[in-house]
Fold these 2 entries.
Entry 1:
Amino acid sequence: MNKLADIREHYHKGSLSKEELNVDPFVQFNSWLDEAIKAECNLPTAVTLATVDSDLMPNCRIVLLKEVCDGGFVFFTNYNSDKGQEIKFSGKAALNFFWPELERQVRIRGTVEKVSEGQSDDYFNSRPRESQLGAWASNQSELVDDSEILLTNYSNLEAQYADKEIPRPAHWGGYIVKAESIEFWQGKTNRMHDRYQYVLSGNKWQIKQLAP
Ligand SMILES: Cc1cc2nc3c(=O)[nH]c(=O)nc-3n(C[C@H](O)[C@H](O)[C@H](O)COP(=O)(O)O)c2cc1C
């Protein structure tokens, strides 16, 4: 077993200066996401979603980014899940993208809203049938007594919807994290990393540099 304290990374792949940042953080984000896709980063749209529960206990899990629009970041899930309950409780969330191959991190904080029914329908209808059935078959975050029950649920639904269009469950859809701050982090040598945080002030984004 490696001694964890001896594992060290050296960051050297890039740098970021205020001059090269786009004034619009969404343009900046999309260009970093494009670069992560082009660099064949593993799961480039995977993002850690952090919420708090009603005891203010933090929780986090990975979801997949599906759209960047209307000043926010969209993902899809089960509205009854733990994350759904936690979002209902606080109305706030944070997101963290990490693209290790580029030594980059993006941190986003903001308020959360459900996307429109139409947007959820459009995305649900674009999914493979197996994923659509999965949204019906699993009560995400609830206790499972026996995995056979899940498989039986799935098979029953498969039979029920054979040759039929599968409607979106009302408890499944999208959320948008409306960003209030977005930070771009680029790893650098000697831990002198570059950090720039965009903060929404009124309807204008201000850019601040933060110490690493
Ligand atoms: C790579 C990856 C992608 C995932 N994408 C999603 C997603 O888009 N939506 C989702 O609800 N769960 C997704 N999950 C599962 C979540 O991490 C989590 O297990 C699930 O949503 C239940 O979380 P909760 O109990 O906190 O609500 C993904 C997990 C991984 C590892």
Note: The chain has one domain: 11-127+170-209.
Entry 2:
Amino acid sequence: MRVSLLASGSKGNSVYVETRETRLLVDAGLSARELTARLNHIGVEAESLDAILVSHEHQDHCRGLGPMARRYSLPVHLHDATRRELPRLGKIDRILPFDSGGCFQIRDVEVNAVPLTHDAAAPVGFTLKTPEGKIGIATDLGIATRLVSDSLRDCRVLVLETNHDEEMLRDGPYPWHLKQRIRSNHGHLSNNTAAALLQDLTWDGLEAVFLAHLSETNNTPELARAAIDTMLCGQNVCQPDVTVGRQAYVSDSFVS
Ligand SMILES: [Zn+2]
Ligand SMILES: [Zn+2]
């Protein structure tokens, strides 16, 4: 199994997941050229991908979706409501719609689309059950509902949003309405709310946690890591590797 954050942050997101039989992108929020280059950087040919999964229609998740799908003839799995919000996506040969809460199979990966609360048409996170263990991916969510935390249990690898530090957001330069949007139930998880969610998800099989979608204005990698490390230090269930996803370059991979 291999998991890498090709890019993470409010300017573009994409997660690469590889199992014995399957190679997936979750979101394609950089240009196709940049995604191709970042895949090459970790030794992966974009031609070898099996599919792209789409969490929601925001540009930081879909910027390179159409060009990637066309250039490499990739099937795209997304919600119908998400598709409708992407009128300029262009022609894609294989669009495979899923339902929120739905389940589907891509080779050796069982995908579950977990409904999230976020200001998009039908935002979802994903759990990927593979023969090598379960991966959970949840970014762009205002709150972690019971359904989200229940769905993300028993993961070997988690990709969780730590979008902002609550004080930096409060004291920062954003206009009031944008601050309100970010901290609303349909906004983004703070470092502290992500730590509380992670505390709920710790178990002795959790090996790696990626901190994702950090705001460049309202957070720092050090603050995000500190919030998570403080929580992890206070429990003795597991000590996963913690990696902070970056906007400008590919994160270290989890490989097993
Ligand atoms: Zn986003
Ligand atoms: Zn979003």
Note: The pocket of zinc ion (ligand 2) is lined by residues 56, 58, 118, 120, 140 (CB under 6 Å).
